[in-house]
Write a structure and sequence with these properties.
The complex is a heterodimer of chains A (about 270) and B (about 290). Chain A has helices at about 45-55, 80-85, 105-110, 120-130, 150-160, 180-195, 205-215, 230-235, 240-245, and strands at about 5-15, 20-30, 35-40, 60-70, 75, 90, 165-170, 200-205, 215-220, 225-230. With about 270 residues, chain A is of the alpha/beta class. In chain A, the strands form two sheets. Chain A has a six-stranded mixed β-sheet with strand order 6-7-8-3-9-10, with helices on both faces. The complex binds adenosine-5'-triphosphate (ATP) and magnesium ion. Adenosine-5'-triphosphate binds near residues 40, 42, 46 and 48 of chain A. Chain A: One of its GO terms (biological process) is L-amino acid transport.
């Protein structure tokens, strides 16, 4: 692995509609071939951080007002989303966002529109996705709107893969799915990282699963990354266990005041 | 019985022309959520430009090509200078923008070509021909043929090409389309050009039937009941809706008209659409919301 990380988010501030401050100086980095997870409470800023990375803020009238996002050392702040997809960064949106009236296969093909694939090259790219997600094969001719939540999540990931990304940002891939399906999806993400060297940036509410599968974790609070470290270390921290696993007895303590930092940098 | 059939066929044929106008709306509505009120003005501009060129001795084919070029340029300009700056604005803002646009286009047409009424002769007789024992207007047949071919071409384009797939993706979920790297402005440009071509074809057909004059832009009002019936977001709905309205209108004119002392063709479609709206607000083929969380 080289010295410079693949993705660097450097002290960014994000404002929605010129009024709502969603990120206040968030920094993180993802190395090539690394799976990084962002954990944090509702409204902490995880989705916003992902959208800043894949340049999807503009569609929600959000803007990076300070700091930079670097992909392979290049400032990508001015690229539009399509350029960024071509450069190798793609996002799998929260709630999957498959195209409901397109068939499963058409959904996959739509992911390759930017690559202008046709004929045999397109077939090969499709087969690769079907290999990873055999569950999609019998559904290929069915409208995506009629497939199950798990299948839609697989489809959304498959569709992203059709663009040949080097970094995939995933927003809550486990949302609303049964534990077994979640495992299946994270196993495939694992394979993508190991076999294809694709880097992953995963925002998750399901901290237990995410920490088990990620290499590195950041905890986001009030628009900042307040703690980070190897996933195993983070999982072992008692304060994190309290907050995100609800495992220990002290999880019944009174909630912290809104806005006050809950976690502090470990000594 | 033959008479009934004759009325029915006549109605269906004029229905195809309604379908074509309605499709112009659906294309833009599906991809950008804009109800393009300027469609009528575009249609008028196309017909007026064509007829004025022909009157100035420009050969038929050249006039057609020049008008087509003009429609493409207008489509590009609308996308670039009106809609792109207004991206992510609420639908009512976009609708108002196209409303304003329609006056700009109508004004420009008048400035450019004057305000008099022109006859447009596409070289097709309106004489009825006999087929299978019933009489059909030759012009209606021709117009329906052209409109039908146009509709078929559009459907094939959207089903079979990469741009067509991108179009349907954008129509389905704009944010998702953006996230997978589809260039929305390119799709919008393609759609506005397509809408310009539809305006050209329907402008010539309607212009030949009604005469080219400013009231021609009101033809789009005829598309509204079709859209109510077929759903604003369904190409198939626009086709079927157009046929239904065309047929219903003619049948009503002949069979119920006398009860009202005739002349119900003008408003029957709107009443039918209103009644239908109360029963099925999303139209026959409107978006069945298939969604899962
Ligand atoms: N489109 C938007 N317009 C205005 N404010 C927004 C928008 N999206 C998010 N916000 C605000 O930005 C802050 C961060 O939201 P964000 O969605 O990034 O949090 P999150 O960590 O992903 O939360 P969750 O776990 O609920 O998904 C919140 O205060 C939220 O209200
Ligand atoms: Mg979120």
């Amino acid at each position: 692995m080289t010295g410079t990380p693949l993705l660097v988010v450097d002290d960014i501030e994000v404002v929605y509609q010129q009024a709502i401050l969603a990120l206040r100086g968030l920094s993180l980095s993802v190395d090539a071939g690394q799976a990084v997870t962002l954990l944090g409470a509702n409204g902490a800023g995880k989705s916003t951080a992902l959208k800043a990375v894949s340049n999807l803020l503009r569609a929600e009238r959000g803007r990076v007002t300070r700091g930079r996002v670097l992909f392979e050392g290049q400032d990508i702040g001015r690229l539009d989303t399509a350029d960024l997809v071509e450069a190798g960064v793609i996002q799998v949106l929260e709630g999957r966002h498959c195209f409901p009236q397109l068939t499963v296969e058409e959904n996959l093909i739509s992911g390759a529109v930017s690559r202008r694939l046709r004929g045999r090259a397109l077939r090969a790219a499709l087969d690769r996705v079907y290999d990873l997600f055999p569950r999609l094969v019998p559904k290929r001719g069915i409208n995506a709107g009629y497939t199950s939540g798990g299948e839609q999540q697989m489809l959304a990931i498959g569709r992203a893969l059709m663009a040949r990304p080097r970094l995939i940002a995933l927003d809550e891939p486990s949302m609303g799915l049964a534990p077994l399906v979640v495992e299946e999806i994270f196993d495939i993400l694992h394979r993508l990282r190991d076999e294809e060297g694709i880097s992953l940036l995963i925002a998750e509410q399901n901290a237990a699963v995410a920490l088990r599968h990620a290499d590195h974790a950041y905890i986001v609070e009030n628009g900042r990354a307040v703690v980070d470290g190897p996933a195993a270390d983070i999982a072992a921290r008692p304060d994190v266990r309290d907050l995100y696993f609800g495992l220990s007895a002290s999880s019944e303590r009174t909630p912290h005041a809104p806005g006050a930092p809950v976690l502090t940098e470990s000594p | 019985m033959d008479f009934l059939l004759e009325v029915l066929v006549g109605g269906l044929l004029s229905g195809v022309m309604y379908s074509l106008v309605a499709i112009g709306f659906v294309l833009i509505y599906k991809t950008s959520g804009v109800l393009n009120f300027a469609q009528g003005a575009q249609l008028l501009f196309a017909a007026l430009t064509f007829v004025s060129l022909v009157e100035r001795e420009v050969p038929f084919v050249a006039a057609l090509a020049i008008t087509l070029g003009a429609m493409v340029v207008i489509g590009l300009a609308i996308e670039r200078f009106v809609l792109r700056p207004l991206v992510n604005q609420p639908p009512i803002t976009l609708f108002m923008a196209t409303l304003g646009l329609s006056y700009v286009i109508e004004g420009a047409s008048q400035l450019l070509w004057g305000a008099q009424v022109h006859g447009l002769d596409l070289g097709i007789d309106d004489a009825p021909i006999e087929a299978a024992g019933i009489f059909i207007s030759q012009f209606d047949l021709f117009a329906a043929g052209i409109a039908g071919a146009m509709v078929l071409a559009l459907v094939l384009f959207f089903r079979k090409t990469r741009t067509g797939l991108a179009f349907r993706a954008v129509a389905d979920d704009q944010v998702a389309a953006l996230s997978v790297g589809i260039r929305l402005p390119r799709v919008w440009v393609a759609v506005w050009i397509a809408a310009g071509v539809v305006a050209l074809v329907s402008g010539l057909l309607w212009g030949a039937r009604l005469g080219v004059q400013f009231s021609l832009s009101l033809v789009v009002l005829k598309a509204l009941p079709v859209l109510v019936l077929g759903g604003f977001d369904s190409v198939a709905g626009a086709i079927v809706g157009g046929l239904l309205i065309g047929a219903a209108e003619k049948l009503a004119e002949v069979y119920i008209g006398p009860l009202f002392g005739g002349g119900i063709e003008g408003w029957f479609a709107y009443v039918a659409a209103l009644a239908f709206l109360l029963v099925r607000p999303s139209g026959l083929f409107g978006q069945k919301l298939v969604e899962r969380v």
